[in-house]
Amino acid sequence: MSNDSRREFLRHTGAGVGGAALSGFIPGIGHVQAASAAELVDPLAPKAPHFPAKIKSVIWLHQNGAPSTLDLYDYKPELVKLAGQDIPASFLKGIKTSTQGGVGKLFVSPKRSWKQYGESGAWFSDLLPNLAQQADKMTFIKSSTTVGATHDISILKLNTGDLNPGRPSLGAWITYALGSANPDLPPYVVMYNGDREPQAGSVNWSSGFLPAVYQGTAFRPGPSPILYLDRPEVRTAQQQRAELDLLKRLNALGAQHHPSDTELRARIQSYELADRMQAAAPAAVDISKESDATKALYGIDDKTSQSYGEVLLRARRLVEHGVRFIQVVSGFPEGADQDRQSWDAHNDLEKNHGLMAKMVDKPIAGLLHDLKERGLLDTTLVVWTSEFGRTSYGQSGNGRDHNPWGYTQWLAGGGLKAGFTYGETDEVGLQVADKDKSVDTYDLHATVLQLLGLDHLKTTFLNSGRSERPTVVYGKVIKDILA
Amino acid sequence: MQRLTVVLAAALVLVGGVVRAADGELDMDLMQTIEDTNKSLASNIATQNGAGSTADAKELQELFGKVEAHFVAKGGADDAVDLSRKSKDLAGAILKSVAEKNFDSASESATTLSRTCRTCHTFYKKS
């Protein structure tokens, strides 16, 4: 078979690898074949959800390194009582620990104090005095579980639902299913604070087997979040437009010959998006015109919380500009010691969490308050999440090891029962108390999709002949937390 | 010489089988087949492929029967017996839903089946 006739065959049958990659189910449209998906539909055109959405945007706050939610939200009087003793064997039933140096004594920081806040009476530790004031806006899931592995692997599961690279991230699925609400900005933006990209890497905002156009776009921290955004002074806007038009024509010719090349289609979209972004993006991420009061609200007037506060203020601005999914990975304040650059407190938890909590406390509290004041909280979902939690027994004397068996995450925003807590851990905060109430990453994803008007079982894409969905073969919407 | 090699190889396979049975572990190939079939089932239900869904659900019913028999024989694993029985019943429920062309219901049952697999694996991890 000659190359031409082979191409013709693949084009007609839509059965090539790329054909399979491009064909799929588009909400509101149904199953589409490769050619029509690519040629008739702008891949980022807005698409109807399966049912009316409760929210328009998601701010996904990944607390990198895994905070000890036992030191933030999950108050356990029994743990305080038993601190310093060996953990009773009954609490370890059904789990396999692999703590370096062995399982330590039950640990409680001598400095920790707890109080209830708001009408909901949610517990907060002394580490989060500002966030505690927002208690009645929050919906806690205190029965979170996942697969415990290395940070990178569990982070991958948190974002893509799999322990191996290759699947699309939640943000990519949402972008694929709903398209863009603002053609001048990427619908899926990733941000972080600190001086480097998150160590778990861009595989966590990848489009996986979905067309590349649905991947996240990373915005750097600092005054110029988008690299090379400004047009060089020596080139006029007219010259740039002419170059882009020529490039577009040439790429379109290439695309005709390679209909299955999703990378090329993504590149065409990217050039056009970049051109439009030169006008729209600086305004969207420019926080210089925000009032001093707003900046103070986000903790930008404090060195420890400044960089994270700037990122969250940008996140709010992106929500206002119609960005659908904003993935924020926590970094570290400028000048932080090497071992305090994430929440990963295997030792000296008090110093680590003292710094990290101070970095996020005011900015997140400010974000919730600001969204509410601007009438945006009803249509936005804020998710506070991490790859796993930390153990109730100690490690290295004053730290905690990884805990995938029971930890807290929370959500706030539209469509939720505010000031509500779902599930609980056992009396020492190690495992989920009632396994039927355990919430895995898939369940969290299914619930986020539900709030966006998407049925996770019907958000599908044909990959190499197999129908794939965001929740792999799992996922259960946590109906008890929905308003 | 060639005959001796064949006999030795056959003996090793037999010994391997006995060791596997003696240490009470489930055949990993069986578990992999269940995982693959389960993924195929999810895909076939999503694409409303009745014949494919039925074939996968029937195979799962049979495979969970083997899992159940294994844990009954092993003893002291009531949770695993219950969960494999539940999985077998869910495969039956999927067959019924697919026969009625109710793919939404089949999808719900298939998701519950997958969760049941995960629940079982939290009890019975290979150390």
How many separate domains make up the residues of chain A? Answer: 1
What oligomeric state is this?
Answer: heterodimer
- Count of helices of chain A? 12
Q: Can you name the CATH architecture of chain A?
A: 3-Layer(aba) Sandwich
* Main beta-sheet annotation of chain B: none
User: How is the largest sheet of chain A built, in terms of strand order?
Assistant: 8-7-9-3-10-13-6-14
CATH class of chain B: Mainly Alpha
Q: In sequence order, what are the helices and strands of chain A, one letter per element?
A: HHEEHEHEEEHHEEHHHHEHEEEEEHEE
What's the number of extended β-strand segments of chain A? 16
Query: In the CATH hierarchy, what is the superfamily of chain B?
Result: Cytochrome c/b562
Biggest beta-sheet profile of chain A: 8 strands, mixed
- Looking at the structure, what is the overall shape of chain A? globular
Describe the structure.
The complex is a heterodimer of chains A (483) and B (127). With 483 residues, chain A is α/β, with parallel strands linked by helices. Chain A has one domain: 3-Layer(aba) Sandwich (Alkaline Phosphatase, subunit A). Helices cover 32% and strands 15% of the residues of chain A. Chain A is built from 12 helices and 16 strands. Chain A has helices spanning 3-13, 17-22, 34-39, 77-82, 151-160, 170-178, 237-257, 262-285, 292-297, 303-320, 349-373, 441-451, and strands at 24-26, 30-32, 57-62, 114-117, 122-125, 138-144, 188-192, 217-219, 325-329, 380-385, 389-395, 399-403, 407-413, 420-422, 461-463, 466-468. In chain A, the strands form 5 sheets. Chain A has an 8-stranded mixed β-sheet, with helices on both faces. Chain A has a two-stranded antiparallel sheet with strand order 1-2. Chain A has a two-stranded antiparallel ribbon with strand order 4-5. In chain A, a hairpin with a 3-residue loop joins strand 1 and strand 2. Chain A is globular. Residues 6-40 of chain A have low confidence and may be disordered. With 127 residues, chain B is an all-alpha fold. Chain B contains 5 helices and no strands. Chain B has helices at residues 2-22, 28-46, 50-74, 78-99, 103-123. The longest helix of chain B is centred in the middle third of the chain and has 25 residues, at 50-74. Residues 4-23 of chain B have low confidence and may be disordered. Classes of the chains: A alpha/beta (483), B mainly alpha (127).
